[in-house]
Design a protein that fits this description.
alpha+beta; globular; single chain; Pnp Oxidase, Chain A
């Protein structure tokens, strides 16, 4: 009823909004951490989270010693939550499994650059110095690259919701 329309979803996924990643501990209990993500894919004009979902993948990186990285290396199931409180309140949820890509099989640095340009640079060439500075501080990191091909989507856009209207 309140699913995001295609253009709204495209713009939402491009915004520098942090996601909350949920992983599973060995005992099956959830673990959450905020992180930066990058979406690469297509959102069809007649998008529907179940009947005609976006196609593509989400990318994110983590340090090799991070708890959540070890979780995903042991169990690739995960969920991403991206939302804004609003008004209007909006939410995208993505469930799936990750593909773990480590150096030397895969070069994580181009994806990291794009993430830093999205979140630090915010699409403004005037922020290039901050982007380069941030990248320099990460050179000693041992990054692990994750690729998510979503299996399930949830989207909510309450911009059409009027106060007092039954949901």
């Amino acid at each position: 009823m309140f699913e995001m329309q295609a253009e709204v979803l495209r713009e939402f996924l491009d915004r520098p909004l942090p996601a909350v990643l949920s992983t599973l501990r060995r005992d099956g209990s959830p673990y959450t951490i905020p992180l930066w993500y990058l979406w690469e894919g297509e959102v069809p004009d007649d998008v529907h989270p179940v009947h005609n979902p976006p196609s593509g993948q989400a990318w994110f990186l983590g340090g090799a010693t991070s708890t959540w990285v070890r979780h995903l290396q042991q169990d690739p199931r995960m969920s991403l939550c991206i939302d804004i409180e609003g008004p209007p309140a909006m939410h995208v949820g993505i469930d799936g499994t990750v593909e773990v890509l480590s150096e030397p099989e895969s070069d994580p640095w181009p994806i990291l650059r794009r993430l830093v340009e999205k979140y630090v640079g915010r699409g403004d060439p005037a922020n290039e110095g901050e982007v380069e500075g941030y990248l320099e501080t990460t050179r000693s990191m041992s990054p692990v690259l994750f690729k998510v091909t979503p299996k399930q989507w949830r989207t909510i856009d309450l911009s059409e919701f009027a106060a007092g209207q039954d949901i």
